[in-house]
Specification:
Chain lengths: 342, 345
């Protein structure tokens, strides 16, 4: 079976190659954040067929290290923008779970009042500032937020999550050019998961590094192992430092693999656009498992602690679903609100 | 110097009466509005291709970069879509960008950000964000502007919820509507007309606002209503002047804002005259003329003494050549002919 996009990182050994001074408490908190996203996504997936969540879902299972590692390097006041695949960044940036699930259940108390659904999870109170369901749509918007941050000198850094296909949109090139020109405090965080819906990278781009493409726009670009949270964190931390120092944008590519279909529940590898063998290769470097094994191996985490986390998270998720299902639907009057601002 | 300057310079307008107040040019009125907005609010900035060049966007941005600095008045890469998104993103966190294009044709490159992003965010995030961004452009006409430098695109945008569109017809309105647009908390397109730019008018000094969403009677009359905006009002006036000696008394309604449309003034005038000509600088089909016609049929049918007449562009791209242009664009004579037929029918 063909493996078109093999994993090229160092797997479990990758953690030992990264020198760090993070406290045990910090590392465990990151693990917990990744575990929490995984379990939330799994529960959404498990219930999706019930049709209570009438919203297109784009699960981040397999991409948790990217979301958590990136957002861990940010302050709460820093801003995050994303594409349609919002769940990971929303939760990693500190977005409220209850309001997320209310949104996914189309309830009036959803994070955007049932106007956005899964593709438009926003929680401005924690800097989850905007999303676009048009590939590339959020890129100039994040760039504009960075321009505003620079003009206001408010010390904010902006991150926009994008995918490999986003680099094919003209507006992305335009935005990288402008960000580099004006030395804007923005980080282009590219989760390269090799497929746009079911179209492989090779049918969309010539054989060249996305990193090199980004660098040609006049900014530093790095590519780090997207299944290794410490590698992701370090890359974004360095980019944040550059941005905050006024040295301009950075492009960070993290190769990752989505274990599920582009949209909806379950994996769709059986349809033939990619092979199950390829998914299995990447599942062997499941970012959650890898990090958990590393923490266990280095005696920072043990089985009872993980079980305790699992229990707390399960209770939190159950409560949040209960809240969502018990929450009121919007009324017809709500439809006409906020078309225009006062 | 813009390539159509000679043409615009050759246009002849009536001089306003200086006893009614300070007379300034249309271009100066726009320039004053931008300067006032930049001075009053540090969150306002002006961007666009060439806003700081010697031509200064027909003169409307003259001296602004020198006065307010290159951080607040700046040239952009030729990246209309991205710069529209940049403006939107900046507006979403508290800035008030004014993104200037010398023709609406270039705004078409930014439709994804204008239509699908800027106009939708306030609704999509349940009112958490406002998007106070202004998109300014001047509709071209003549001197070979042709199919790609003359498009009036407001018709395409009438069906975009969340967007406002203003189309001034006088220097007074150009200043007052632009100030209102900049202070508005929604995306607002300001579509000027290149042929109005040599017009002079009475314009107060300092800040004032012309309300968005309200039309105005430019001329009261009994027999017939001509409704439109922007340069169409100039044509309507010329037609009304031709018709007056013939005993045809024309009412002219200047919409000032084409979205949201002041339906009340159109219906009130229709009730008064019973006859309606909708005039537009753009295509008749699916645009402002069509919308006004539909409004009259839907809500003013009982007041109509004759069928509605639309006068705008045929369903044909703009030709570049001078002779073809003469067939293409409606003029006052064509409006007057339609008015005569309507009144005598």
């Amino acid at each position: 079976m063909t493996i078109r996009y093999p994993y090229k990182g160092h797997g479990a050994d990758g953690f030992d190659r990264i020198l760090h001074s993070h406290s045990t408490e910090q590392l465990v908190a990151w693990y917990r954040a990744m575990l929490r996203i995984r379990r939330i996504e799994e529960e959404i997936e498990r219930r999706y067929h019930q049709d209570q969540m009438k919203t297109p879902i784009h699960l981040v299972i397999g991409q948790e290290a990217a979301a958590v590692g990136c957002c861990a390097a940010l302050r709460e006041t820093d801003l995050v923008y994303t594409s349609h695949r919002t769940h990971g960044a929303y939760l990693a940036k500190g977005g409220d779970l209850g309001r997320m699930l209310c949104e996914m259940h189309c309830r009036v108390n959803g994070c955007v009042g049932s106007r956005g659904g899964s593709m438009h999870l926003i929680d401005k109170s924690v800097g989850m500032a905007g999303t676009s369901a048009i590939v590339g749509g959020a890129v100039p918007i994040a760039t504009g937020a960075a321009l505003a941050a620079k003009m206001k000198q408010d010390d904010r850094v902006v991150v926009v999550f994008l995918g490999d296909a986003t680099t094919e949109e003209g507006v992305t090139s335009e935005s990288l050019n402008f960000a580099a020109l004006r030395k804007l405090p923005v980080i282009f965080f590219c989760e390269n998961n090799f497929y746009s819906v079911q179209s492989p990278l090779a049918t969309r781009q010539p054989a060249r590094d996305i990193r090199a493409w980004a660098e040609a726009h006049g900014m530093p670009a790095v590519s780090v192992d997207g299944v290794n949270i410490l590698a992701v964190y370090n890359a974004v931390r360095d980019a944040v430092a550059r941005a905050r120092a006024g040295d301009g944008p950075t492009f960070v590519e993290v190769p990752v693999y989505r274990f599920r279909a582009h949209g909806g529940a379950g994996d769709d590898s059986k349809t033939g656009y990619r092979t199950e063998a390829e998914r299995i290769v990447w599942e062997a470097v499941d970012p959650l498992q890898l990090f958990g094994a590393y923490l266990t191996r280095s005696a920072k985490l043990d089985r009872p602690a993980i079980q305790n986390m699992e229990h707390e998270i399960a209770v939190e998720i159950a409560d949040a679903f209960e809240l969502a299902l018990a929450s009121p639907n919007p009324t017809e009057e709500d439809l006409y609100r906020h078309v225009y601002a006062d | 110097m813009p390539w159509d300057e000679g043409l615009v310079n050759s246009l002849v307008y009536d001089r306003p009466d200086p006893s009614e107040g300070r007379v300034v040019s249309y271009v100066s009125a726009v320039n004053e509005a931008l300067a006032i907005a930049l001075e009053q609010d540090p969150s306002v900035f002006v961007l666009g291709q060439g806003v700081d060049d010697p031509t200064a966007m027909f003169g409307t941005t003259r001296d602004l970069a020198a006065r307010f600095g290159p951080e607040r008045v700046f040239d952009t890469p030729l990246s209309e879509e991205s710069m529209m998104g940049v403006s939107t993103g900046a507006a979403m966190i508290g800035m008030r960008p004014v993104f200037m294009h010398n023709r609406p044709d270039f705004v078409l490159l930014a439709f994804n950000q204008l239509v699908t992003h800027a106009s939708k965010f306030h609704f999509m995030d349940n009112g958490q964000t406002t998007v106070p961004v202004v998109v300014w452009a001047a509709i071209g006409r003549g001197w070979g502007s042709g199919a790609q430098h003359s498009q009036a695109i407001h018709g395409m945008l009438l069906g975009v919820p969340g967007l406002k569109i203003v189309m001034p017809s006088t220097p007074y309105d150009a200043k007052g509507l632009l100030l209102s647009a900049i202070l508005d908390n929604n995306p607002v397109c300001v579509f000027e007309h290149r042929w109005l730019m040599k017009k002079d008018g009475v314009v107060p000094e300092g800040a004032y606002r012309v309300p968005i969403g309200k039309g105005i009677y430019r001329r009261r009359g009994r027999d017939l209503t001509i409704v439109g905006a922007s340069h169409a009002i100039e044509l309507a006036f010329q037609a009304a002047t031709q018709l007056a000696p013939e005993g045809i008394d024309v009412e002219v309604v200047d919409l000032r804002t084409v979205k949201p449309l002041d339906e009340a003034i159109v219906l009130e005038s229709l009730k008064n005259t019973g006859r309606l000509i909708a005039v537009d600088t753009a295509w008749m089909k699916g645009g402002l003329c069509a919308e006004i016609g539909c409004l009259a049929a839907e809500k003013g049918f009982g007041d109509l003494k004759a069928p509605i007449v639309r006068i705008g562009l045929p369903d044909v791209p703009t030709p570049a050549g001078y002779t073809l242009e003469q067939f293409y664009y409606p003029d006052a004579a064509r409006i007057a002919d339609a008015a005569r037929r309507l009144v005598r029918s």
